[in-house]
Write a structure and sequence with these properties.
The protein is α/β, with parallel strands linked by helices. It is built from seven helices and 20 strands. α2 packs across α7.
Length: 379
């Protein structure tokens, strides 16, 4: 016997077996770079999900303002990408992606006002504690990586880790520094940015790669991406593409801002639960393979059905997790014989309490095999 299913090669979020809030519920890093800018590939339903599910706290200096400028131009071109931001406040607007801009009383946010001092950390805590609907927080560099030491950059990584531990329901997005300077400053920035990238890859974090988005430009005439670098002691150092040299907004061109805004939509769609990948329809799996079907219906309210197949007698566990990697409920656990099984979940926790709308993961463990898939509860 063979079973036909859909195989998803997922780019975005996964749930690790035994994951904790320390990995923020992922078994892979999420790297947002120039390959994440073709937003026409994002299904409209996932744009809607961003607008209904996600609330962003965004702290930045002038360079970071490029992202907001890009979002403004994207929305002006297509109202589907509706968003709204307010300084020092989380706006509420149905059908729009809502952004808290800055901290409680500041809008130009240096490292000292977000993560580099105890005062800055407390300012970040104040925003997140006073606005429990916020589920993403990110801070953008100015030119600090151009002169930072390795130890100073480690301080940034350490502070972000502390915030992650304190706010397990918030996804903290790491960022690289802009790629505008050349010479020794540009090379130092390159090293510090690599420090951030390697940390995110090793620790399964979300990275918005600002420097990568600076240095790559899509040439519509050739339909190819062009990468701009300069030589420093035999090293090709990425630098802002000359197409983006300008000062139309945030020290760059509007075109560069739009590219960065597109990357924001791609990132948030992934964080909302969109799986971007290759789909092979009706791919046949041998009957001796463990399989887990997509829950139906999905999205669901209030009940959904999960089906799976065991190729042999196994010790089975089926559990639901939230996006922070915390278990919501265990649906079944014990020895089961070979065969097909069906389990319903009513969107409730172990005490009968209703869980909130959002993205959840269901994980099947049987013998030595583990499969995880994503579901969406919309109340």
């Amino acid at each position: 016997m063979k079973i036909s299913i859909l195989i998803f090669i997922v780019f975005g979020l996964f749930l690790a077996a035994g994951a904790t809030g320390h990995t923020q519920g992922r078994i892979e890093a999420v790297i947002i770079d120039h390959t994440c800018t073709e937003i026409s590939q994002i299904p409209a339903a996932w744009v809607d999900s961003v607008q209904s599910l996600l609330k962003l706290h965004y702290a930045h200096t002038s360079h970071g303002g490029q992202l907001l400028t890009g979002l403004v131009y994207i929305e002006a071109d297509d109202s589907k990408y509706s968003f709204v931001y307010e300084d020092n406040n989380l706006p509420v607007e149905e059908g729009a992606f809502c952004i808290f801009n800055g901290q409680q009383s500041e809008t130009y946010i240096t490292p000292e006002l977000y993560w580099a001092t105890s005062v800055g950390m407390d300012r970040t805590r104040t925003v997140l504690s006073a606005n429990p609907d916020i589920n993403i927080s990110m801070w953008s560099w100015c030119t600090q990586p151009d002169s930072y030491s390795q130890e100073q950059m480690q301080g940034y990584l350490d502070s972000m880790s502390v915030l992650e531990e304190e706010y397990p329901n918030v996804t903290f997005v790491y960022m690289t520094g802009n790629a505008q300077n050349t010479g020794s400053s540009g090379y130092n920035r390159y090293l510090r940015n690599e420090e951030i990238r390697q940390y995110c890859l090793a620790n399964n974090r979300v990275l918005y790669d600002f420097a990568d988005l600076d240095s790559w430009w899509y040439n519509p005439a050739t339909e190819l991406w062009e990468h701009n670098t300069y030589d420093y002691g035999g090293t090709d150092v990425p630098v802002e593409h000359e197409q983006f040299n300008g000062n139309e907004s945030g020290h760059t061109t509007i075109e560069s801002c739009i590219q960065k805004g597109r990357a924001v939509w791609w990132m948030t769609a992934l964080l909302a639960g969109w799986d971007y990948g290759i789909i092979a329809d009706a791919f046949a799996i041998p009957a001796n393979s463990l399989s887990l079907s997509q829950n139906q219906p999905n999205p669901f309210n209030p009940t959904t059905t999960i089906r799976y197949y065991l190729p042999q007698r196994s010790h089975v566990g089926l559990e639901i997790y939230n996006v922070s990697g915390h278990m919501v409920i265990r649906l079944c656990r014990g020895i089961e014989e070979e065969g097909f099984y069906s389990v319903d979940w009513n969107g409730q926790g172990p005490c009968g309490e209703s869980v909130a709308s959002g993205v959840y993961f269901y994980r099947l463990q049987a013998g030595k095999g583990t499969i995880t898939k994503k579901m969406i509860l919309l109340r």
